[in-house]
Each structure stands twice: as C-alpha cells, then as structure tokens.
Structure to design on (248 residues):
C-alpha cells in the first residue's frame, strides 16, 4: 500500500520540472494522476507513459489553467473519468522578470493571471467535489520569494505571496468539511524555469543557501507528498519551506 493508494490527484503543469516530479512521486505512492499543460503535448505524452509504467491511471489535459471556463470543463472531465479528486496541486507558474519601474502591464498581468488566477480557478471547481467527499488536500506551489520578496520579481513575488493568503483563507473556509490547504515554498530549484537565470544569479542563490546547492524537483515533490498524504492529517494553513535553509 502506498501513501496515496486509492486517491486521485490533479496537478496543473505536469509536463516538466516540479509538476512532473510531483506526478511521478504521487504515482509511486499509488495515486491516479490527472495533469494539465499548456503547449508541450510531446512532453505530456511522455509523462503519461512514465506514469502508466508505474501502474496507475493517468490522463493529460491541454488547458490553460488561467482560463476559467476551460477549467470548469477540465474538472468535469476529470470527475467523469476518475470519479473523485482527493489532491489538487496548483503548480502551473511562469516568470516575466523586470525591475518594477521597467515592468510593463502585460508582464504584470500575465504573471498574476497564470500564477494566481489559475489556482483560484482550480480551487473554485475542485472544492465542491472535495466537499461532497468530505475530504481533500489542496497544495499551492508558492515560493520563498513570496515570503521575502526579490528584486526584479515584483510581479512573481506578489503572485506567490497571494497564493499563501489564498491557501490560508481556503483552509479556514473548508476545514470544517475535512479539506486541508497548504503551500510548499521552494527555494532555488534546478528546473527549466531557473535555467533561464544568468549563471552569476544562480551562483549567488547557492552561496546564500546553507546546504550550498540548488534543490531538485524530486525534493519539492517529497514535500508535496507529505502535505498530500494522511501523514499531514492535522496540518492545514501552513507554508512548508523547501529551500535548503535559505532565509530571505
Ligand atoms: P517549469 O517552467 O519547469 O514548468 C512549468 C510547468 O507549468 C510546465 O509543465 C508548463 O507546461 C506548465 N504551465 C505553464 N503555464 C501554464 C498554464 N497557463 N496552464 C497550464 N500549465 C502551465 O517550472 P518549474 O517546475 O520550475 O516551476 C513549477 C512551479 O514551482 C511554478 O509555480 C514556479 O513558480 C514554482 N517554483 C519554482 C522554483 C524554482 O526554483 N524552479 C522555486 C519556487 C517556486 P508546458 O510544458 O506545456 O509549457
């Protein structure tokens, strides 16, 4: 028996990086997995194959998580296909970095729309399903820069801070129905997203991290697994930092 046997998990952005690692880790613990992506259909098929090889049911959905009407459709399809939803991981996220006085309106809007509105969309449509089941675990992938801020990432940091407020509010609203809501706040994690950063910036992140390295996507997936499983059954409205000790 795995930690998530008999459970169904929904993950936004499961084709790469942290989302894919979460999908695989959950599947290793017995969860059936539905995941979304936006453009990399090739990677979605590959992830599906890797999940099936672990002996679970899975399905990918090409759906912009920030599209409210599409989210309604996708959640209805997942319920039809899998029958229930036990875990929701709001992982889809992007960066559009610039200093605040150089940041244009679309950089601000796009990051807030994809990082924050997407989480609202999925919580809005998944919460009634979890409420009927009288159980569920919602996990928002925030960031340590949502706690401490970061120069050049006013839009991203604001969106990640808001995900914490969102999780804490949802925890209060839905706790009485057996639904928990928490955040994982990763530090510097090696993925496509951080590969775009200049070498000097990555070096600085590592130097400021007591464990003196970047984290792996698998390490973030383990934190998400803890919050998804019954191991954390009395833990809600919390932010679990997965940052090698980095303090911003
Ligand atoms: P990646 O860029 O490696 O992967 C992003 C994933 O999100 C992809 O699967 C992508 O799909 C999907 N995605 C992007 N936009 C949308 C959308 N609108 N709708 C649905 N899916 C979408 O990112 P990471 O794995 O590094 O990051 C994952 C999460 O973790 C993000 O929220 C990020 O902010 C957060 N995080 C990352 C840190 C890091 O150091 N890497 C640190 C702290 C937090 P597709 O393949 O189709 O493009």
């Amino acid at each position: 028996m795995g930690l998530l046997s008999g459970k169904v998990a929904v993950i936004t952005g499961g084709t790469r990086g942290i989302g894919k690692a979460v999908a695989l880790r959950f599947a290793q613990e017995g969860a059936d997995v539905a995941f979304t992506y936006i453009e990399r259909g090739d990677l979605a098929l590959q992830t599906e194959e890797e999940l099936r090889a672990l002996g679970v049911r899975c399905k990918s959905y090409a759906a912009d998580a920030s599209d409210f009407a599409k989210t309604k459709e996708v959640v209805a399809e997942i319920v039809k296909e899998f029958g229930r939803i036990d875990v929701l991981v709001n992982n889809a996220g992007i960066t559009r970095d610039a200093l605040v006085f150089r940041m244009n309106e679309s950089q601000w809007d796009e990051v807030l729309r994809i990082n924050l509105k997407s989480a609202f969309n999925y919580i809005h449509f998944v919460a009634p399903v979890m409420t009927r089941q009288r159980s569920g675990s919602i996990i928002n992938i925030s960031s340590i820069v949502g706690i401490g801020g970061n120069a050049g990432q006013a839009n991203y940091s604001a969106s990640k801070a808001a995900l914490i407020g969102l999780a804490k509010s949802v925890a209060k609203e839905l706790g009485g129905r057996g639904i928990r809501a928490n955040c994982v706040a990763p530090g510097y994690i090696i993925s496509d997203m951080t590969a775009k950063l200049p070498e000097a910036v990555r070096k600085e992140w590592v130097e400021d991290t007591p464990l003196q390295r970047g984290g792996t996507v698998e390490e973030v997936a383990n934190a998400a697994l803890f919050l998804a499983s019954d191991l954390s059954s009395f833990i809600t409205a919390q932010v679990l930092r997965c940052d090698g000790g980095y303090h911003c």
